[in-house]
Amino acid sequence: MFRKRDQPRLWRATFAVVGWTALALQYLLMIAPAQGWTVLERTINYFSFFTILTNILVALAFTGPLLGEGSRLARWSASEGVRAAVAMYIVVVGVVYHFLLHPYWNPTGWSLVVNLVLHYVMPAAFVLDWLWFSPKGRLRWIDPAKWLAFPLVYGGWTLVHGLATRWWPYGFVNVDQLGLVRVVVIFGVLLVFFLIVGLGLVGLDRLFGRATRDRGATPA
What is the DSSP string of the chain? Predict the structure, then answer.
């Protein structure tokens, strides 16, 4: 039997392996059918998916706690703000994929397996990790606004890269088909959704933090 204090480490080790394996497999699947693209171009495109970038953050956040406390990755991944921000990003990944992309995308074989892992398994695993193992009660209501920096930078990169190459990672950001104004509006709506998810996480953080403090203050 595993001791209770070993449970977070086992959970994180398991999903660190699952996450990195899925990311590596997705990369191999993406560069295999070149279809006129060079390996370098396909590699740049691979790192231009928000799903990939966010799952890299998730895999890093699962890996960090397994390392020595003196390592930068361990310190980064130990931050309550970092873990909540990553939870916000991966929740949006799962929801957007399920409602906006899944109806129009029917992968098979290994692509199906990878899609299930990156869009369903890893979001669920990390949200549960945040709920079960992250200290609560330290987040502020302003934090979700700060966490928007990552999707904002991603949106800028997507626009610059897309206009330069005419390649777009997702249909709902395809300026060539939808026009710049419509894409900006869609992106604005997504930012609002990010913010709502982030505020929800802060609300849960405060609720659980208050419950923990109340239990600690209750006389034995």
Answer: ---GGGHHHHHHHHHHHHHHHHHHHHHHHHHSS-TT--HHHHHHHHTT-HHHHHHHHHHHHHHGGGS-TTSHHHHHHH-HHHHHHHHHHHHHHHHHIIIIIGGG----HHHHHHHHIIIIIHHHHHHHHHHHHS--S---TTHHHHHTHHHHHHHHHHHHHHHHHS--SSGGG-HHHH-HHHHHHHHHHHHHHHHHHHHHHHHHHHHHHHHHHHHHHS--
d(CA 52, CA 19): 10
This prediction has a pTM of 0.93
Per-residue pLDDT of 44-69, as tens digits, reads: 999 999 999 999 999 999 999 999 88
Q: Six-digit token pair at 59?
A: 């895999």
